[in-house]
Write a structure and sequence with these properties.
With 435 residues, this protein is mostly helical. The protein contains 19 helices and nine strands.
């Protein structure tokens, strides 16, 4: 179990670091308010529990789990909000202490005052909870472990936390934590509860709506700055400017400007932002990220040409393998033959292409490939063919597809021998079928 929890902790820290979100103190680097794992702060929880017990703000509860479940079921059947009935609150402190010393298992509950609790939320304004909605909740379980709300409140006090920002599904927890802090005589932090992210159908976001963990987007090859940008815009806007860098968001972001309305996960918007941030990358970094997704041993000229070809179109680098396979893998004859039958090769100057490419260097730069195609189109024009008639047959022979990256990038991604072989093999199929 401990290994599993450590694995999750390491995953969270790794994802935050990948997003470019860094911290001044924490479990990985220490700091003045450690330890930074709640499980390592039990001594502080025990001290706070003793303090609440001594001042009468808390009491021991000896009710069994069976009784509590029976009580809950009865209250729900009667249409009431389930809450503890305070049976053990009637015990005198001396009687309760005697039972504890005798070894009887006991939890510790907070004696919740009969008054409203107001969460002064930075996003939503005052949120009011009636005392009947909370009940005397458990501070310390009979096993000795601190409950979440108690431990969180004590840790916030002891670590001098100034702001707590979390999802709005924690609003009720915040009300309970405020009660704990009030009983301890501690100043509460400021709270902000942002809306949850919902799926396009309005339901809770899940795997069926697409990737949901930061690590999933990292594996798919989204840029961290694109994910940062998208997450920031889920419940916040910066006028008409939507493409934002992390430094710009750090300077402009205000918690109070967040919307309280639920945010809807929008995959097309994420992909649009992903593309915008790809376009902002310098070419060297873009080429490096493309090269990481190419087959091992891809020649550098091919990798550079493919990177240049993809930059105007991709949203994330996980698209690279599929989009480049159509160029790097020669078309199979059985798949190519039906496509060739649907294209006219009459007067197409493929003989000119073969001559030009055979006379060129092993690798063409995209600029040199563009010049070759200019000469090829001129030869086609002399035979009465426009580019719409001359270029599709050549693309088909080279890639086996009617569409794809711009043709000069395709030529630049193929070594001379490979380009010549593909065209000649395709022409053999055309001539064989014709005969």
């Amino acid at each position: 179990m401990a290994r599993s929890e450590l694995r999750h902790e390491e995953s969270i820290l790794r994802d935050l670091s990948w997003l470019g979100l860094h911290w001044d103190e924490g479990p990985d680097m220490g700091g003045p308010f450690g330890p930074y794992r709640q499980s390592e702060r039990a001594a502080g929880h025990t001290t706070a529990a003793d303090q609440l017990l001594a001042c009468g703000a808390a009491y021991h509860c000896f009710c069994s789990q069976d009784r509590l479940e029976e009580l809950r079921a009865r209250q729900m059947a009667e249409g009431r909000t389930p809450r503890y009935d305070r049976r053990c609150a009637a015990l005198s402190p001396a009687a309760a202490l005697a039972r504890v010393r005798a070894g009887e298992p006991a939890a510790l509950r907070l004696h919740v005052p009969d008054r409203e609790v107001v969460v002064d939320d930075l996003i939503r304004g005052p949120v009011v909870f009636g005392a009947e909605a909370l009940g005397d909740f458990i501070l310390v379980r009979s096993s000795g472990g601190a409950g979440y709300n108690f431990a969180a409140a004590v840790d916030d006090r002891d670590m001098r936390i100034t702001h707590v920002i979390r999802g709005d599904d924690h609003l009720t927890n915040t009300a309970r934590q405020l009660l704990v802090l009030d009983a301890l005589g501690a100043e509460p932090p400021k709270y902000a509860h942002h809306s949850l992210v919902l799926g396009p159908d309005g339901s809770k976001l899940s795997k069926r709506h697409g990737a949901t963990a930061v690590g999933d987007y990292r594996a798919l090859g989204y840029l961290p700055q694109a994910v940062d940008n998208y997450l920031a815009l889920l419940s916040w806007s910066h006028g008409e400017q939507e493409v934002l860098t992390l430094p710009a968001m750090e300077q402009e972001f205000e918690i109070e400007a967040l919307s309280a309305s639920p945010a809807i996960f929008d995959q097309p918007k994420l992909d649009w932002l992903g593309h915008q941030h790809v376009m902002l990358l310098d070419d060297e970094e873009h080429q490096r990220l493309v090269a990481e997704r190419l087959p091992p041993g891809t020649p550098p000229p091919a990798a550079a040409a493919l990177a240049a070809a993809l930059k105007p179109s991709i949203s994330y680098y996980g698209q690279v393998p599929e989009l480049t396979a159509q160029v790097l893998m020669a078309p199979a004859p059985e798949a190519l033959r039906p496509a060739l039958a649907a294209v006219s090769f009459v007067d197409v100057p493929l003989d000119v292409f073969l001559r030009l490419r055979a006379a060129g260097p092993e690798w063409l730069s995209p600029e040199a490939a563009r010049e070759l195609l200019t000469v090829y189109r001129a030869a086609a024009a002399e035979r009465g063919l426009g580019a719409r008639r001359a270029l599709p047959p050549l693309r088909l022979l080279l890639t086996g597809r009617e569409h794809g990256p711009e043709l000069h990038y395709v030529l630049a991604a193929l070594a001379r021998a490979d380009a010549l072989e593909r065209v000649r093999r395709g022409l053999d199929l055309v001539q064989g079928d014709a005969s």
